[in-house]
């Protein structure tokens, strides 16, 4: 019950903060929810939040590679990235849940910017980038 209440409060705070316009970076919002915890160090919580963001980006980029790449080897690498990073993301989510760590619900601004940049490329241009 405590976990559910903590999770619900975290989601509510994320919505309030994101709707207030003061900070829209999902990773920074998640990190702010994990500050001043006594059961895990702030640096450990930050590492988990950042690792989850990196895995989410790698999954999205792997999916993008499967559709935008020109060469089969890049498409195959994208498929491998999706499989490997989905497994890692699932493990991170389980750890975060056990430790009551709030994770970002979307990509960080930096990760989204990189994704958007690569999403504009196709074929050989995508492969080279």
Q: Could you characterize what this model shows?
A:
The protein is built from six helices and no strands. The chain has helices at 2-20, 26-33, 42-68, 72-98, 109-119, 123-128. Mean pLDDT is 82; it is low at 1-22. The chain is mainly α. The chain is elongated. α3 runs antiparallel to α4 (72-98).
Structural Rg: 17 Å
Q: Beta fraction of the residues? A: under 5%
- How many distinct beta strands? 0
Global structural class: mainly alpha
Element pattern in H and E: HHHHHH
The overall pLDDT average reads 82
* Coarse morphology: elongated
Low-confidence sequence ranges = 1-22
Helix share bin:
over 70%
Oligomer: single chain
Distance between the termini: 47 Å
Largest sheet: none
Query: What count of helical segments does DSSP give?
Result: 6
Q: Could you give a quick summary of the protein structure above?
A:
The chain is mainly alpha-helical.
Strand and helix map with partners:
Elements: H1 2-20, H2 26-33, H3 42-68, H4 72-98, H5 109-119, H6 123-128
Key traits:
mainly alpha, 6 helices, 129 residues
């Amino acid at each position: 019950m405590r976990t559910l209440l903590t999770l619900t409060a975290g989601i509510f705070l994320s919505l309030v903060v994101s709707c207030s316009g003061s900070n829209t970076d999902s990773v920074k919002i998640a990190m702010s929810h994990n500050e001043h915890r006594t059961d895990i160090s702030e640096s450990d919580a930050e590492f988990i939040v950042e690792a989850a963001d990196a895995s989410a980006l790698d999954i999205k980029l792997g999916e993008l590679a499967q559709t935008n790449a020109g060469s089969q080897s890049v498409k195959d690498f994208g498929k491998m990235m999706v499989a490997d990073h989905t497994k890692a993301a699932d493990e991170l989510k389980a750890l975060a849940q056990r430790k009551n760590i709030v994770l970002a619900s979307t990509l960080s601004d930096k990760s989204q910017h990189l994704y958007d940049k690569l999403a504009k490329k196709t074929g050989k241009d995508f492969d080279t980038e």
